[in-house]
Write a structure and sequence with these properties.
- By secondary structure, the chain is α+β, with helices and mostly antiparallel strands.
- The protein folds into two domains: 59 residues, no CATH class; 124 residues, no CATH class.
- Strand 1 and strand 2 form a beta hairpin.
- Helix 1 packs across helix 2, helix 4 runs antiparallel to helix 5 and helix 5 runs antiparallel to helix 7.
Length: 200
């Protein structure tokens, strides 16, 4: 039995069975997904080699969830952009960007849940049970968009500039020796425009 603050060891066998050493029971990917939702820490090890295979197993859980009807959470444009970053110059910073974005987003969602809980915690005479404070939802949506916009700025090496004339743009393009950097800046600008449209 692991210490209270240590992650549970899940062993994966050649027959694809998963064994929870903390409870001494076989588990499924659905069980692991529930452990994640409950905030229970675990690592998955190959039973034969002892290698840490937590990452591919968590990826497999996401794949399984995404293939369930009505459970799609990752939009196609996001998936395309994510795939495009593999092998790209920005690949090394994408993981930390996504991690920090999700941490900040989770904190915002927790704050929102508390606000909703306080808004409907009165008696039925005070608050109708079906009343939804739309203003709070709108404000939360705006905060979430601002959150992602701020996170996207870490990708932008230069502040946005006013549109240049064709002559100035051509002159600037001739001085731009690094084609990859220019392409990267264009991708970032496109992503920023999408976020701005969401904000509007």
């Amino acid at each position: 039995m692991p210490a209270k603050d240590e992650p549970v060891i899940i062993k994966k066998y050649a027959n694809r069975r998963l064994y929870n050493t903390g409870t001494s029971t076989y588990v499924t990917l659905e069980d692991l997904a529930e452990m994640v939702k409950k905030g229970e820490e675990f690592t998955v090890q190959d039973a034969k080699s002892g290698d840490d295979i937590t990452h591919p197993v968590l990826t497999q859980i996401i794949f399984e969830l995404e293939n369930k009807d009505g459970q799609n959470m990752l939009p196609i444009p996001f998936l395309r952009q994510l795939i495009a970053f593999y092998g790209d110059q920005m690949q090394m910073v994408v993981p930390s960007f996504l991690e920090q974005s999700m941490i900040a987003f989770s904190k915002e969602q927790e704050r929102f849940r508390e606000q909703m809980k306080n808004a409907v915690s009165g008696t039925p005479m005070d608050v109708a049970p079906f009343t939804v404070p739309m203003k709070a939802i709108e404000e939360q949506t705006k905060r979430n968009i601002e959150l992602f916009q701020n996170a996207m700025r870490m990708f932008a090496p230069f502040p946005p500039q006013a549109p240049a004339t064709e002559e100035a743009a051509a002159d600037s393009g001739s001085r731009q020796g690094d084609g990859d950097l220019q392409e990267l800046k264009e991708q970032i600008a496109a992503m920023q425009r999408k976020l701005d449209q969401m904000g509007n």
